[in-house]
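Re: weekly structure request thread

Next one in the queue (273 aa):
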Amino acid sequence: MAKSLTFSTFPPTNTLNKNVIPIVLLHGWGLNSGVWQPLLDLFQTDNENNYQLVTVDLPGFGINSAVDLASYSLTDICHHIEQVIDQPAIYLGWSLGGLVATEMSLKYPEKVLALISVASSPYFVEQAEDNWPGIKANVLDSFHKQLAQDTAKTISGFLKIQAMGSPHIRQDLKLITQLVMAHALPSQKILTNSLALLSHCDLRQHLSIIKQPFLRLYGHNDSLVPKGVIEQINHLAPNSDHHLFDHASHAPFISHLEDFHQVLVAWLDSHFN
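Done, posted below.
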């Protein structure tokens, strides 16, 4: 029997509060929920009592490193999340986590009160033939090859990409690295299987089905999810909202923490207060 996922709540209680709305935070590829700590701290400082923040490490990552899926697919990941988050929640996913959050809203619409994607895309790979901006296929291929040679070096290189374009790249890189490295690195197998999701998953044609409130957040200088994709997704999800953070790269909740928090809370309050 597969091991169940574990989630963390903030403030720490390890149980879901039935009297407030949970916001489930899902991290990106290669990392873990440690990246959310600055945002968690800011929510607690501001006493945002309308929401309970919940972090879930994806299977094979962070505190869920022992969770082994027979098939590392969006379907199986979402099934495991749905099993442990037993009440409707807002799902906020960053990068790969945005794909997972989007799949949650499609597979379990009754469990998703709202969808928020951060520096994410329904399809991450550049497609020149249909003018779709994204990561060049050779960049993803190089990550696959590097993983086979040196896992730690590959993650270190990926962390640098997170901070590229930020106005304070060194501070951001140092902070992200400290937060992520508080946990052991995932295995090469998990990294390879989860990277394959970025290469192959394509949810573009399903965005129009999403009926929940939908917010998309982007970084102006993001090299992994180029800002050119925003207009394309506007057509695919015409009822969604979006915001572009000036000078931000792939992790606006790190580089532009206070602005990110302000935009997020204003949108949440407009829909849930």
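The chain has a mean pLDDT of 90. The domain at 7-272 is CATH 3.40.50.1820 (Rossmann fold).
Next request, please.
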